[in-house]
Amino acid sequence: MFRIPLLVALALCVAFGVGIVSTVSALKATVGFGAIALGPWVAFPDAQTKNTDPYAKAHRARAGKLLYGGAEGLPFTAATDSAGEKLSSGCSYDITGVTPPARFWTLYSTSANDQPMKADPALPGAINAWTVLRQPDSSFVIHVSAVAQPDNWLAIRDIGAFKLVLTLLDTPTAGSSGLIDLAMPKIVKTGCQDA
Predict the structure, then answer these.
(1) Is the predicted pLDDT of residue 119 greater than 80, yes or no?
(2) Cα–Cα dist 145/153, whole Å
(3) Which of 74, 87, 119, 195 could be joined to 125 by an S-S link, Cβ 3.0–4.6 Å?
(4) Which of 79, 128, 124 is nearest to 99 (CA)?
(5) What is the Cα–Cα distance from 181 to 156, expressed in whole angstroms?
(6) What pLDDT was estimated at residue 59?
(7) Model confidence over 86-99: pLDDT tens digits?
(8) What distance, in Å, lies between the first and last C-alpha atoms of the chain?
(9) What's the order of all strands across the beta sheet hosting 140-145?
(10) Predicted pLDDT of residue 163
């Protein structure tokens, strides 16, 4: 007598459960439709255009992020180093190379859930195109570590997994379809404190 209503209720629960879980996971995804990966750096060049997909719009709205206009800028995020290992604040990294052409760029760190990492105000929590020390060939080496480093140092807190965000501002890259040909800086692990 109760078998058919019970099976219908069970089927509805499974359907709604799977639908809700898949929708929440799609909204939490950081790599989705239209993502461009250049080494460890990932960007969404269409995220601020009218051609963006509904999941990207929902992801940005849920995160409360304001997007740059098509020619204003393009943020790249890295959650792994160039060897594919997750970034950990217990380790030190060197970011080496050059950035694609841009009038200005910024580099800062965030927690694994994309919240800006709040370091001590006396420590360098961000580096930009005007403050970075460069080599004679215009390349740079930025040391990312919780321990003080000489020259270009991006201070991070010891919080576990983290991400790096490199934002190119006023760049032809943002409106370019040639993103695949760009050379991005490499992220190389130089050591870990617990090793």
Answers:
(1) no
(2) 7
(3) 119
(4) 128
(5) 30
(6) 67
(7) 999 899 999 999 88
(8) 65
(9) 152-155, 140-145, 91-97, 186-192
(10) 93
3-state SS of the chain? CCHHHHHHHHHHHHHHHHHHHHHHHHHHCCCCCCCEEECCEEECCCCCCCCCCHHHHHHHHHHCCCCCCCCCEEEEEECECCCCCECECCEEEEEEECCCCCCEEEEEEEECCCCECCCCCCCCCEEECCCCCECCCCCEEEEEECCCCCCEEEECCCCCEEEEEEEEECCCCCCCCCHHHCCCCEEEEEEECCC
Strands 73-78 and 41-43 turn out to be: antiparallel
Q: How confident is the model at residue 144 (pLDDT cuts 50, 70, 90)?
A: very high
pLDDT of residue 111: 87
Tokens encoding 17: 């459960």
Rg (CA), the chain: 20
Query: Which of 2-16, 95-109, 111-125 shows the lowest per-residue confidence on average (mean pLDDT)?
Result: 111-125
Position of tokens 């970011």? 95
Rounded to 5 degrees, φ, ψ at 147 are: -105, 140
More confident residue, 4 or 96: 96
| 141 vs 65: which has the higher pLDDT | 141
Q: Are strands 152-155 and 140-145 parallel, antiparallel or unpaired?
A: parallel
User: Is the separation of the CB atoms in 47 and 67 below 8 Å?
Assistant: yes
Q: 137 with 63: CB under 8 angstroms?
A: no
